Write a sequence for this structure.
């Protein structure tokens, strides 16, 4: 038995005979705007630059915490706008950068809190 005969048998086994009514074929759903790695990298770079520039405005640990918080809030607002009206891959990159920036600011504030024994933001 050749491979083509075997393939024909397999196909014949899966075709409905027509004796019983069959359902229509199941639909295949595809993402209309898939997230691409290049878009995520572009959003990550833009978000990291945004967080860096806002962090450089600070002159103290307290200022760094507040500037980073403001930069993260605006970055998340932009990411939400991009999810709704723009490229979702870029939004993912911006959100990752904002979250990482907040994590770094939290670590810096915690280290300053441990060193000075008072909360640096108030």
């Amino acid at each position: 038995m050749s491979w083509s005969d075997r393939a024909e048998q397999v196909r014949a086994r899966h075709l409905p005979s027509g004796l019983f009514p069959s359902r229509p074929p199941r639909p295949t759903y595809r993402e209309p705007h898939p997230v691409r790695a290049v878009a995520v990298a572009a959003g990550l770079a833009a978000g990291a630059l945004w967080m860096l520039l806002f962090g450089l405005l600070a002159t103290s640990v307290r200022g760094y915490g507040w500037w980073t918080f403001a930069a993260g809030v605006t970055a998340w607002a932009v990411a939400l706008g991009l999810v709704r009206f723009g490229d979702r891959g870029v939004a993912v990159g911006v959100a990752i950068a904002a979250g990482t920036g907040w994590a770094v600011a939290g670590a810096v504030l915690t280290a300053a809190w441990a060193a000075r024994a008072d909360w640096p933001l108030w």
User: Anything to note?
Assistant: The two ends are 83 Å apart (CA to CA). The helical segments are 3-14, 37-56, 61-85, 88-116. The chain has a mean pLDDT of 87.
